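Intended use. Records like the one below are meant for learning the mapping from a protein sequence to its folded structure. Do not use them to infer anything beyond what is encoded.
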Amino acid sequence: MSATAGIVNEEISIGGQRQLTQRFVEADVGMTFQKTLLNERLFSRPWPDEWPFPAAAFRRQDESDDADFYAVPRLVYHIDEGAVRALTNYYKYSIPPASTVLDICSSWVSHYPSDFPTTMRRIAGTGMNALELQANNQLSDFTPHNLNIDPKLPYDDAQFDVVTCVVSVDYLNQPLKIFSEVRRVLKPGGKFILSQSNRCFPSKAIAMWLGMDDLQHCLVIAAYFHYCGGWEPANAFDVSPRGPNTRDPLFIVESTKL
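Structure written out for the chain above:
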């Protein structure tokens, strides 16, 4: 294992084979991080009385089994270095020590600060690929699960203080059921933190996502909270980083369970 300017070259055993990959590690690499509240720009109008999205909005170009699409482990980042560091920085100041945390739609990385495995009481993960989850060194336990086939989370009621979802809400075709499930597994006052950038697998993203810009994506996520019910009004933040290697934007939409 070797490290250069906040990047670690690492050989990982996965599926009985050794693969060379790179991890971003916390370091001062000249970036700065903002936290700009977007509520006035996004939420100035009242929500429609009824759910505004037709069934066609959740269709996808590729409706084949997601398990086939995600069968091969991808030990890569789906956002760039700046967005990864911005998200890690956000988690650092937003998730209190000794929390129980669930990362849904998880993979081989969860983007938490490096001390979280020791400062958090539990970090559970659920995602599509068991081998990726096995390679995630921040998880204390994991359960592979396809939320588009079965939106019920494999956890008991009121288990977690925080649930996170990293650049994956655009793939969920039953969002209200999943948001309801997240609410079920959260403790009273628990928080659901969703992060979003401008990248995706177009063939697996829901149809309406592909025709929207970043702020419209944030609005859609906030709508999921609103129409699910049982959540405080959502807050949306632009936490896009500044400095070298900061091409991707990053946005947070979060709410607290009532």
